[in-house]
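Teaching note: in complex prediction, the entire set of molecules is handled at once rather than each chain in isolation. The prompt given to students was simply: 'Predict the structure of this complex.' The entities are:
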Amino acid sequence: MTATAQAEYKAQAGIIKALAHPTRLFIVDELSRGERCVCELTDMIGVEMPTVSRHLSQLKSVGILEDEKRGSQVFYRLRVPCVLNFFKCIKAVQSNGK
Amino acid sequence: MTATAQAEYKAQAGIIKALAHPTRLFIVDELSRGERCVCELTDMIGVEMPTVSRHLSQLKSVGILEDEKRGSQVFYRLRVPCVLNFFKCIKAVQSNGK
DNA sequence: TGCACACTTAGCTAATTCGCTAAGTCTTGC
DNA sequence: GCAAGACTTAGCGAATTAGCTAAGTGTGCA
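The expected output is the structure of the full assembly:
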């Protein structure tokens, strides 16, 4: 494996790592049904707002989400919907493979 | 989020987490071109065989890979090819989103 | 039988991650 | 302007992860 290939896999892994957490998967799933503000997501998930905010910023920093501030609230939405395809493949892994 | 939904997201995250590492992504990519034994993969990747073996067993334990012992060698192959679609979506995230 | 090879398991340390609380920024309404 | 609300940033301890080396298991060949 060359150094550049290594760097490429590392960048790709960074994006996947952003998805590799139950709360962040929930967020992506929920945002597939439309934008949500941080407070709405915080209500749905059982953790403190700072924790939710950091999960959101992780997903945003790799380019999966985008945010928009309106008034005192910040709304997040999916920037790259194809990540939703992951759920289908995960189901295939969980069943018998395909 | 209900307790069962939470458990479901956790199980899904476990599968994604197995992919969230540069070496394991390389392995999946390489196995898309056919089965390989542990020693072949070890030669390609720049780490010790025990480390490669553990990466492989992680991917196997979540159901992404399967292995077959032939003689003194162990060959691994992709059990769920749809994980290869992840690479396409990652590229979309890296470019401008889609 | 015994040795070499292919691989896995175990045990260790260093580094990363996740949750929390506390504190800071910014907007809105009084 | 000030207080309250929405959010982010920072700093902490607990838990997980990734690499290594050493040791264990199993196969094949002399």
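Point out the following to students. The radius of gyration of chain A is 15 Å. Chain A touches chain B through 43 residues (CB under 8 Å).
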